[in-house]
Amino acid sequence: MGRFCRADVLVPARHQRSRPLRPKVLITRKIFKESIAHVAKHCDVEINQRDTPLTPQQLIKKLQRKQGVITALTDVISESVLARCPDLKIVCNIAVGFNNFDVKAATRRGVMMTNTPGVLDDTTADLTWCLILAAGRGLIDADRYFRSGKWKGWGLMQFLGHDIHHKILGICGLGRIGARVAKRAKGFEMRILYTGRTRAPQEVERDLDATFVDKQTLLRESDFVTLHVPLSPFTTHYISAAELKLMKPTAVLINASRGPVVDEKALVKALRDGWIAGAGLDVYEHEPRPAPGLARLKNVVLAPHIGSATMETRLKMANKAAENCVAGLTGRRPPNLLNPEVLKA
Ligand code: GLV
After folding, report:
1. Residue ID of nearest Cα to ligand 1 atom 4
2. Which of 17, 111, 180, 215 could cross-link with 125 by S-S, CB 3.0 to 4.6 Å?
């Protein structure tokens, strides 16, 4: 099979009849057959079967005469892409984050944009906890040591990590994912501090036993600092050298939000020079490349952006994007419309 294929090879024969005026949709990455089949019931679908991102030029070329596109967070839908794809009516991200979209430009051009909120909160909170536990206890380094055959038996002073239970967890951004992370922290009997642009309702604070503090207090007092803010111009380098210097030398930084929220070069220095004890990262400033020196450090756990990567959740996300796309192209309001203003216009 070539790099691109039409979806009619993947869907039952009854959906294969080509009908006039069916909208045309591009799916930019490999996704689940079920999700493709849903779109293919209503639209002619072209899929990038290779699981590598399209270059902006390839994307623009493929989007000519297409009304819809299902994108991944690796596809940048900028003003200039939108300007060169005049037939586009809807862009559906398979992600809750949409920092790869220029929503304002899309609104100006009457293009709908959607994301996939609500289905990945628990899964991403689970992965955040994997990072907290693995980074706190040095699990990956210990695993590497064991596999190397160097381990000669138990020793009292070997691989001493940091307790997680009864410590202070600082959550930056107590939104849907941050709140799920907090919920899990209760089982570890942790004290929870949080900060963010807005304070959570009282009942949420009470429910989670979470105390609102300013960013500096959170950084100074927390043993684990976990980031759950969306990426925007306000949160780019939300954690940089100044913030890392405020943290305890025994503290661990966790980032499962977006890479550019952390100044990665400053983080390498902080980890190397002992400003903080460790980090657990799922996202990077310049994916897929880590900052120079990061991958050589032992006190950091590095995951390849797998926050929502479970069978169940990725399927739900792809199906949600497919539903949004079909709704938008068949005259219904997409359930997860980011720019409802386009409908009014
Ligand atoms: C994943 O990173 C997402 O934003 O859904």
Report:
1. 97
2. 180
